[in-house]
Design goal:
The longest helix is centred in the last third of the chain and has 13 residues. The termini are close together. The protein is built from two helices and nine strands, in the order E-E-E-E-E-E-E-H-E-H-E. The relative contact order is 0.25. The chain has a single domain, classed as MTH938-like (Hypothetical Protein Mth938, Chain: A). It is of the alpha+beta class and about 120 residues long.
Length: about 120
């Protein structure tokens, strides 16, 4: 399945093992399509492109305990919607924006450091 990420031993945490082919392997489970990875859950995220990302469809992050959101915007970097950063900041959430591959790797590193982090990842093929 797609691109495998450097192995990380973090039992009980939502480690991203691989991504691509329209899905993600989180720990031992495969998730089809775009996803939200929260500290305690992985949820489907009904987003296929940057233009569909809103503060509303990212609302589960606000109640998750994460203070940092890593957004994977797809196969290639494209700019975020201009109102998204300020909307998240008003909820106490900082946002880092990058392509999906970089977002998966960054999320895992922050997770390994026990940071309160979430990820919003657009699936890539």
């Amino acid at each position: 399945m797609g691109t495998t990420i450097t192995p990380l031993d973090a039992p009980g945490k939502p480690v991203i093992r691989s991504y691509g082919d329209g899905r993600f392997r989180i720990a031992d489970h495969v998730h089809e399509g775009s996803i939200l990875v929260l500290p305690d859950a992985v949820r489907p995220w009904p987003v296929a492109e940057v233009a569909e990302i809103t503060a509303d469809n990212l609302s589960p992050v606000a109640g998750s305990g994460a203070d940092l959101l890593i957004v994977g915007c797809g196969e290639r970097w494209s700019p975020p919607p201009p109102d998204l950063g300020p909307a998240l900041k008003a909820q106490g959430i900082a946002m880092e924006w990058m392509d999906t591959g970089a977002a998966c790797r960054t999320f895992n590193l922050l997770l390994a450091e026990d940071r309160p982090v979430a990820a919003a990842l657009i699936a890539v093929t």
